[in-house]
Amino acid sequence: xxxxxxxxxxxxxxxxxxxxxxxxxxxxxxxxxxxxxxxxxxxxxxxxxxxxxxxxxxxxxxxxxxxxxxxxxxxxxxxxxxxxxxxxxxxxxxxxxxxxxxxxxxxxxxxxxxxxxxxxxxxxxxxxxxxxxxxxxxxxxxxxxxxxxxxxxxxxxxxxxxxxxxxxxxxxxxxxxxxxxxxxxxxxxxxxxxxxxxxxxxxxxxxxxxxxxxxxxxxxxxxxxxxxxxxxxxxxxxxxxxx
Length: 243
Prior knowledge:
- With 243 residues, the chain is α/β, with parallel strands linked by helices.
- Helices cover 39% and strands 19% of the residues.
């Protein structure tokens, strides 16, 4: 890959990305492939933080809508992110990368408790840091957790890995004529309800001038291209013209 544009990134992975075509659980082949993409970037010297969701195992919001107590449901969802983080750690270490799992929920047997300065030191030493457990609080999504962690560790950009090639003005599956944005600003995302991240996460990015790149991780090499500064997917930032 080309020389990196960014020195420190935060990669946001949904749990569904780890499930692959089976939709639930963890697909070993998909996990290995994603780890290979991350390893390619990390070996260039880019400092990589990762926040992974848990929707492939348990969705707190869906369980709450079915009658489960929201707080309990959200904590269960946070635990699911730890399972995914441990799986990703195993896959990365098989490729020879040093990793650390840092959890917002204390569980000393499995992972380090997340401490901002410790996470920063791990990154400086070239370790991939996988941040799990969301924010440690119910009612917050892993998107919000990703933005919060990115700000805390001083990431230059959030890379949101998806199964589509950017942000559209409508669901491209249901609406074949939907238009993809090359760039879009934070306010337009909020005002038009574009499916990037929840409003809390977008507002945090806007307040801290933290850009987001939404891109298709399933295309081989895309992660490296984004990190190299190539125009891949959709850039969400403050300076984009109103679409």
